[in-house]
Design brief:
- With 331 residues, the protein is α+β, with helices and mostly antiparallel strands.
- The chain has 7 helices and 20 strands.
- It has a 15-stranded mixed β-sheet that branches.
- A hairpin with a 2-residue loop joins strand 12 and strand 13.
- Helix 1 crosses helix 3.
- The longest helix has 17 residues.
- The N and C termini lie far apart (95 Å).
Length: 331
């Protein structure tokens, strides 16, 4: 490792790095899995030979008087243009945990890496184990520096397409607020947005274990598992419908109109207000390109559904189309 890079990492781990230095580190460790692995190896070495500063120890002593277990976080935010469509804000959290036996003695530092994708965005990331992830609009993915040690745990809010690197010794777990998906090596799509009433997983290849509460089920390629108002369900589907977004295609064979509008809102960072709720349960078959504008898509939808659209400032109001009557004159 170059001397300059080593000194840069030292400043970061000591909490002294400038914003420009932090941006440089982030660009470096997210470039390739090898660069991130090198950083983590140096981080372990640094932890062995460094002790927390007097400032950190003083903070620990203050908090010790009011809580039993102490966690302190320092956060640095970086902005990096990772896709042409959007800027992804990545946050590296540096957390110092106290030991169980003596709260006055801080244990090893743990870092948390977070990637947020704004509405209208999309980005690819590579995890340290070689797993490839594509995150969809409005998604958040996080993992800690404990990743790829005993297990491979990540936390997802939103939608992601995963190509998981095979490792039979370290299960890969995608944790969401609604379910957990465990795999060893496979390709699948999972959608678990906090604002949605359901979460689902569509399996492309391999096998996964889908768990929610006390229920769990093994999933085979070509199957869709959903957890929602009807509980846990599993059915055979065309999984290409659920993974099409990764190639810029919005395609569904049978999707409720209200669910389609939610997806379009995230994809295009806009607001679609369904004023007539009776339209929400109507299922439709659609296929669009991400290159199509939201105006074009809504125009096509108005041709196949009895809807009228009123446009405001980045807001679209959708209603039932008025019924027209033809008056015939008797002869």
């Amino acid at each position: 490792m170059e001397t300059r890079i080593r000194k840069l990492y030292d400043r970061f781990l000591e909490g002294k790095a400038t914003k420009e230095e932090i941006n440089e580190i982030y660009d470096r460790i997210t470039a390739t899995p090898e660069e991130l692995k090198e950083f983590r190896e140096y981080e372990k070495f640094w932890e062995q030979i460094h002790k927390p500063s007097e400032e950190v120890l003083a903070s620990l002593a203050d908090v010790k008087a009011t809580i039993k277990s102490y966690k302190r976080r320092r956060a640095w935010r970086f902005v990096s243009a990772v896709s042409a469509a959007a800027v992804v804000i990545a946050v590296v959290m540096f957390r110092i945990h106290t030991g169980e036996s003596d709260p006055a003695i801080p244990a090893a530092a743990v870092q948390e890496y977070v990637v947020n994708v704004p509405a209208g965005g999309r980005t690819d990331i590579a995890l340290p184990d070689g797993t490839k992830v594509m995150l969809n609009a409005g998604s958040r993915l996080s993992y800690t520096s404990e990743f790829n040690k005993r297990t491979r745990d990540i936390f997802l809010s939103g939608e992601g397409y995963f190509e998981v690197a095979h490792d039979k010794e370290r299960p890969f777990n995608v944790n969401t607020s609604k379910c957990t998906v465990t795999v060893l090596g496979t390709k699948f799509d999972i959608s678990a947005y906090e604002q949605d009433g359901e979460a689902f997983t569509a399996l492309v290849e391999g096998s996964i274990l889908f768990k929610t509460g006390e229920e769990e089920t093994l999933v085979s390629p070509g199957e869709l598992v959903t957890i929602g108002d009807k509980g846990l369900t599993k059915e055979a589907v065309d999984v290409r419908d659920y993974c099409g977004w990764t190639s810029g295609i919005i395609k569904y064979s049978n999707i409720p109109f209200s669910s389609l509008l939610k997806r379009l809102e995230r994809e295009y960072d806009t607001h679609l207000i369904l004023e007539d709720k009776s339209l929400g349960d109507r299922t439709i078959r659609v296929s669009f390109s991400k290159d199509d504008s939201v105006d074009t898509i809504l125009k096509v939808l108005s041709d196949i559904l009895p809807i009228s659209i009123r446009k405001g400032n980045k807001v679209y109001y959708i209603n039932q189309k008025p019924v027209s009557y033809t008056h015939l004159r008797a002869h």
